[in-house]
Amino acid sequence: MFKKLLASVGIGNANVDLIILSHHLIPGENFDVEIRFKGGNVAQEINGITLALMTQAKYEEEDAEGEEYSAYKNLILQQWDIEWAGTVEPHQEYAERFELDLHPETPLTTIGDKLNQSRVWIETGLDIQSGLDASDRDFLDVSPLPVQYALLAAMESLGYYLKKVDVELGQLRYSGANSSLNCYQEIEFGLRGSGLFGIKEVEVTFINDGHETEVVLEIDRTFGSDTYRMLVLDNHLTDINEITRKLQSALA
Fold it and tell me: pTM to 2 decimals?
């Protein structure tokens, strides 16, 4: 009886662990996972397994004096509800493998090294009857599509350098390009040797629908308001020279 009481408040409860089996995670592509869980001190009924793809998005707040500061919010980008019901016996181990699809607008985490503030992870939970959810958090390394790699390489070939990568709260809408999540990633570039009236910064956002990538460019000039341009690139396009020409024309 005492063990059941402890399990009901999360002490001696079942625990869960998610193992990412795929080595390379790319937005819009499938990946394999294994969910391992182990019974606690007493038998418990499992009603299901939930996995949530998470990120942290930045937004601006004002303090009591009206000064703006950056705040952060954890967001669910995607959720998988897996049907698995049964009794988990004490200390017994279970393992199930699944194939999941990674949302095509998942933020990239492998570019920019320490300049990249983006974080993406999966939280795994067991829905346990009469108890607290067992949970696990696993951070992901998400790499660009080949066309996105090529676009970033083209930016560098035109004299731009990476300044910062982060995730912004909200939706990006421009000229028919609409991000589908409640946040979007900005990849910020500076320009070496910018002229007096030239480009100072360019913020790049990828909107990938699984077939093509819309590249929204927010251009910040030394003087004047920000302007926007957009490229639409087939996801199979990897010719850096062709992308450089398109990019150069858009930034002119």
Answer: 0.87
